[in-house]
Design brief:
This protein is an alpha+beta fold and about 300 residues long. It has helices spanning about 15-25, 55-60, 95-105, 125-130, 170-180, 205-215, 225-230, 245; strands at about 5-10, 30-35, 40-50, 65-70, 75, 85-90, 105-110, 120, 125, 140-155, 160-165, 185-195, 200, 225, 235-240, 250-255, 255-260, 270, 280-285, 290-300. The protein is about 20% helix and about 40% strand.
């Protein structure tokens, strides 16, 4: 089986727990997740199976959407509800001020990752150092918040937000930073990932549902094919006489492929053989006599 499972991770499971359960349920070794979700978080966690594990980094690079509850007045060691309380401050629950503070975080910005994260420094994960009581300086990362909407206010000290953001964004750090902007501090009380790339919460299944399908021998029904996962990419079909070159990972000149749409140099396209079988992802390059497809990620 080769494809992607859109799993709805429940609270209490790590991303590695989900991978282990999927591996056991499907009796497959080649299984990988597409971006860590904290144990207390829930929501969309695409799991790649078989050859589709080659797509993990591509799916991981996609935009993310989250729903979170920001609790004002309390900061914690982990920036979420699982950590120890660091400070407690009175809260002036002014909805106008909260709205204005939240709006200032839309756009490209620098964000310092939290100590309790899986980022490695000198071969050691930050959360491992944090558990040893150590705190080290972290380099800020450039992230983009495409949009934040306040869904509802939850007086006297909380509100719920929907966030659309780039990869690498820590929502608990965003919640903490909003609290700093308001002068009272804050932490992330709850987190639900609603979308990763084209994978949405609406179409996600639980691990229990996957296990039920597997018991009935219908597990493949839960798999999204690699073609479906890459449906947003332009499509190139290589003619039969160039297939030997295609399967050997060679470059394909313009006379030997047909595009589904107009492309430009630098674009990534999905490439299929003449029988419409997906072969890989290629980049469009310019050569003397026209365009050329250069192998980037083979999927066969």
């Amino acid at each position: 089986m080769d494809g992607i499972l859109n799993i709805r991770k429940e609270k209490g499971f790590t991303s590695h727990d989900v991978v282990a359960i999927v591996r056991r349920t499907l009796h497959m070794r080649k299984v990988g997740h597409t971006g860590t979700l904290d144990p207390d978080a829930e929501g969309v966690l695409p799991i790649c199976v078989g050859k589709a594990t080659k797509l993990s980094d591509i799916i991981m690079d996609g935009r993310k959407s989250y729903r979170a509850i920001v609790r004002l007045g309390i900061t914690t060691t982990t920036e979420d509800a699982s950590g120890e309380i660091v400070t407690q401050n009175p809260v002036d629950f002014d909805e106008v001020q909260i709205t204005e503070a939240v709006a200032r975080f839309v756009g490209e910005q620098k964000q310092v990752p939290p100590m309790y994260s899986a980022i490695k420094v000198n071969g050691k994960k930050l959360y491992e150092l944090a558990r040893e009581g150590k705190e080290i300086e972290r380099k800020s990362r450039t992230i983009t918040i495409y949009g934040i909407q306040i869904r509802r206010f939850l007086p006297p000290d909380a509100f719920e937000i929907d966030v659309d953001c780039s990869k690498g964004t820590y929502i608990r750090t965003l919640c903490s930073d909003i609290g700093k902007a308001l002068g009272c501090g804050a932490h992330m009380a709850e987190l639900l990932r609603t979308q990763t790339g084209t994978f949405t919460l609406e179409h996600a299944i639980t691990l229990q549902q996957l296990e039920e399908l597997a018991k009935q021998g219908r597990q493949e029904e839960a798999l999204l094919s690699m073609q479906e996962a890459l449906a947003d990419y332009p499509k190139a079909v290589v003619v039969q006489r160039a297939e030997k070159l295609l399967y050997n990972g060679g470059r394909i000149a313009e006379p030997y492929f047909h595009m589904s749409q107009t492309v430009q140099c630098g674009n990534v396209v999905t490439v299929f053989d003449s029988k419409k079988q997906l072969v890989g992802l290629y980049t469009v390059t310019q050569v003397e006599d026209g365009l050329c497809l250069k192998p980037w990620k083979m999927l066969i």
